[in-house]
Amino acid sequence: MTTETTTVRHDDANLPNEKIVLRVTDLKIATNAGDEILHGVNFALSRGEILGLVGESGSGKTTAGLACMGHFREGLKFASGSVSLWPRGDDTAVEVVELDEVAVRSLRGSRIAYIPQDPALSLNPAMRVGEQIREVLDIHKFGSSEAERSERVAAVLVDVGLSGDKAYQKRWPHQLSGGQQQRIGIAMAFAMYPDVLILDEPTTGLDVSTQAVVLDTIRQMTVANNVAGLYITHDLAVIKDISDRVAVMLRGDLVEEGPVASVLEDPQHEYTKMLMSAVPDLAGRKTIGEGAAAEPESESKATHILVSAGTSKSDDSTESGDGAATSANAPLLQVKDVALAYGKAQILDGINLTLEPGDCTLLLGESGSGKTTLSRCVAGLNDDYSGTVALRGAELARSTRKRTNEQRVGIQYVFQSPFSSLNPRRSIGQSLTVPLEMSGDGTAATRKAQVEEALDSVRLGRSFYHRRPGDLSGGERQRAAIARALVNQPSVLVCDEITSALDVSVQASIIGLLRTLRKEHDLAMLFVTHNIALSRHIADNLAVLNKGTIVDYGPTAEVLENPKHEYTRTLIADVPKF
User: Fold this and answer.
1) Domain contains 318
2) Is 454 inside any structural domain?
3) Of the four, 50, 198, 288, 380, which is 20 to 30 A from 443 by CA?
4) d(CA 433, CA 456)
5) For every residue of 404-463, which 3-state class applies, written as one string?
6) pLDDT tens digits, 40-70
7) Residue 433 lies in a domain
8) CATH number, domain at 207?
9) Is 526 helix (H, G, I), strand (E, B) or coil?
10) How confident is the model over 165-220, as pLDDT tens digits?
């Protein structure tokens, strides 16, 4: 099946250009069954410039990017069109999609280089980083001597802002931070002085400060080496900082293309306008995810049952399940003097914060700042801490296993990857039933009803009960993971980087959903993220962590507009802005 779509062009990108090094013309890719995935895509890459290829998951952007390397994922095949490459110093084009396996392998890593999304997965944990860069040079027979290759390893490490000495080259990947690992990946890609660089979401999962360094490294290396870059992403804010041109993809079609400023400042296609409206802005001038608050498809009792989640146990002083007194005057959640160290490494250093029903506090910080460690202490998933975590005035045991059933139910955790909480072999309904079975409440019939109500509350609907995680999109899986956390009617929801890998439009829908859940169910949230741009769209309060210490804490607007700590000011300055 094919579709006819006219690309909105802000200028004619197909005019002759001596800088063009790779041109994709009318590219069509299909499944082995014959269903078309790309419907005639056209774009060109020029030396010293970066083309940003944006779109949601499933739009075909990664498929198009991999085709530039002559690679097609399992189940897909080249249908028609061309990918023409003009190697440096050669006037004759190479048709990449027509090369045999030996020729295309020779091309990859030498003339066309690739940087993947996850640097940890692209590096061999059993090889020292210098050896991994050297391996690229050995495979493609760089230079004329061992000394020349060793010199190139050291030089390219320095080029990406790392040390080129022997001591650094002998480090293992696990001894490097995420940003350093990604820069090793960049060094490997640039080692052979390629003509084309394909970058597939290389900063997804990185905090804003690390992302800024990596983007700056990519930009500098691209210009300095006169390389043509294709930057694949769903983050339009990043595209503004890194790209010269941008192409927007939707369901296998390229729908809009042109200079970055033209497309972002004056988008013409409705899909581009929708993507831009979903990008969170630090100033909070717009409200993202407004459409997520639609009513469930089917009538249910979800609101009536779940609305008591944040308040049902706090009207008066009562006895908790283990006999500990709770108090109506105490905060819903109180973290007091929480500290944690591994040997000489101080991970958390005297953390204090409170959370009231219906409130959301955003824990912000770079990788390694301690925000996830703190959230796991609150949930009882990490029991090595000192200090106290109290729910409605009752101090909680450090380990979730030693907490009462009522306390375990009261604080629920939503993981970054929904696969961490959804069994791929079970239906969504079966996975959501497990927490109810563990708590020992109700009958099979009442549990099924509660699961269906939870599915309704996250705007999936009870029709998802019999579906499996593999049948769902990324956004649907994350909604199911949230439903799993809600099924036991918690008072506090701990959300750990739950939108970091989602497209901006899907992220917007999840943020809108969480706002609705807070309003409808008086649900308190601890929202862990490195994406400071989300703060105004989800949080009442903002706690900024740096090396295990809260350096700024207060109402979100106050912290953003009058940050007291230099670290907070640096984070704000590093946020990509339109």
Assistant:
1) no
2) yes
3) 380
4) 15
5) CHHHHHHEEEECCCHHHCCCCCCCHHHHHHHHHHHHCCCCHHHHHHHHHHHHHHCCCCHH
6) 999 999 999 999 999 887 789 989 999 999 9
7) yes
8) 3.40.50.300
9) strand
10) 999 999 999 888 777 888 898 899 889 999 999 998 888 767 788 888 888 888 98
